[in-house]
C-alpha cells in the first residue's frame, strides 16, 4: 500500500478528534485543583495508564498522585481496574470491559511488544516471539497466558506446533496505538497501517 493512501486515512482522526475520545466537558474541570486537573487530563489522554506512569509523565511524587486519584475516583471522574501488580485508570464511562483490558496491556512494554509482534506476524510460535522481543521463552509464556486469559490473543495447535494470533485481527488495537501511544505508532506504523485503514473503513459504514 502506498504511503499517500494510508497517510490520508490517518488524517481522518486528529488530536482534536481522536477515536474513543470522551467529551471535552468532563464535569466542569475548571472547578478542579490545578494538579488534580493535570492528573485527569493525563488519564484522559492516556487511558489505561498505571500509577507509576502517571508519576513519570507528570513528574509528580507518588503520594501526590495517589491523593488526587482517590479524589477523582470518589467524585466519579475516573474509574480503575486492578490486574496483578498494577492498577489501571480510565476516564469514567467511556470504555467497555474488553477495551479496558486492551488499553491496560498497551500501557505495559513487554506484553505490548509481544502483542504487536503477533499482529505483525500472525501465527508466530513462542520461540519466534521470544527472539523478536529479545526475552526468554518462559517470560513469553507467562505474558501469553495472561493475554489468552483476557481473550486478546488466541492459541492454535496443529500437531506439536503451537502458534498465536490476535482475537479480532488487531484493528481496534491499531487504532488505540495510533491515538494513545503515538511514539509506539511511529515505530510500528508500517506494520499497522493496513489494519488501521481497514478499521477506519469499517467505522465509516
Structure explained in plain terms:
The N terminus is likely disordered. The longest helix is centred in the C-terminal third of the chain and has 23 residues. The chain is α+β, with helices and mostly antiparallel strands and 205 residues long. Helices cover 57% and strands 13% of the residues. The protein has 2 domains: 129 residues, Arc Repressor Mutant, subunit A (Orthogonal Bundle); 74 residues, Winged helix-like DNA-binding domain superfamily/Winged helix DNA-binding domain (Arc Repressor Mutant, subunit A, Orthogonal Bundle), CATH 1.10.10.
Entry keywords:
205 residues, Arc Repressor Mutant, subunit A, 2 domains, disordered N terminus, elongated, 57% helix, three-stranded antiparallel β-sheet, alpha+beta
Order of helices and strands: HHEHHEEHHHHEEHH
Give the DSSP E fraction (strand runs of 2 or more residues): 5-15%
CATH architecture identity of the largest domain: Orthogonal Bundle
What gross morphology would you assign?
elongated
- The first-level CATH class of the largest domain is given as Mainly Alpha
Structural class: alpha+beta
**Over all CA atoms, what is the radius of gyration?**
18 Å
Helical content class: 55-70%
Distance between the termini: 21 Å
Mean pLDDT: 82
Topology of helices and strands:
Blueprint: H1 3-10, H2 34-45, E1 49-50, H3 51-58, H4 62-74, E2 78-83, E3 86-91, H5 97-106, H6 109-120, H7 126-133, H8 137-149, E4 153-158, E5 161-166, H9 171-180, H10 182-204
Antiparallel strand pairs: 1-3, 2-3, 4-5
Helix pairs in contact: 1-10, 2-4, 6-7, 6-8, 7-8, 9-10
Amino acid at each position: 500500500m502506498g504511503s499517500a493512501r494510508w497517510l490520508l486515512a490517518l488524517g481522518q482522526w486528529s488530536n482534536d478528534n481522536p477515536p474513543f475520545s470522551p467529551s471535552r466537558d468532563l464535569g466542569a474541570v475548571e472547578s478542579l485543583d490545578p494538579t488534580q486537573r493535570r492528573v485527569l487530563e493525563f488519564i484522559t489522554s492516556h487511558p489505561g495508564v498505571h500509577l507509576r506512569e502517571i508519576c513519570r509523565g507528570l513528574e509528580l511524587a507518588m503520594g501526590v498522585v495517589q491523593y488526587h486519584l482517590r479524589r477523582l475516583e470518589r467524585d466519579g471522574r475516573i474509574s480503575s481496574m486492578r490486574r496483578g501488580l498494577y492498577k489501571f485508570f480510565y476516564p469514567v464511562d467511556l470504555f467497555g470491559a474488553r477495551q479496558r483490558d486492551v488499553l491496560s496491556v498497551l500501557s505495559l512494554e513487554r506484553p505490548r511488544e509481544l502483542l504487536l509482534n503477533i499482529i505483525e506476524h500472525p501465527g508466530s510460535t513462542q520461540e519466534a516471539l521470544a527472539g523478536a522481543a529479545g526475552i526468554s521463552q518462559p517470560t513469553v509464556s507467562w505474558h501469553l497466558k495472561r493475554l489468552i486469559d483476557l481473550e486478546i490473543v488466541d492459541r492454535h495447535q496443529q500437531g506439536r506446533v503451537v502458534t498465536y494470533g490476535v482475537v479480532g485481527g488487531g484493528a481496534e488495537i491499531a487504532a488505540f496505538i495510533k491515538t494513545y501511544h503515538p511514539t509506539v505508532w511511529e515505530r510500528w506504523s508500517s506494520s499497522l497501517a493496513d489494519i488501521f485503514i481497514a478499521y477506519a473503513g469499517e467505522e465509516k459504514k
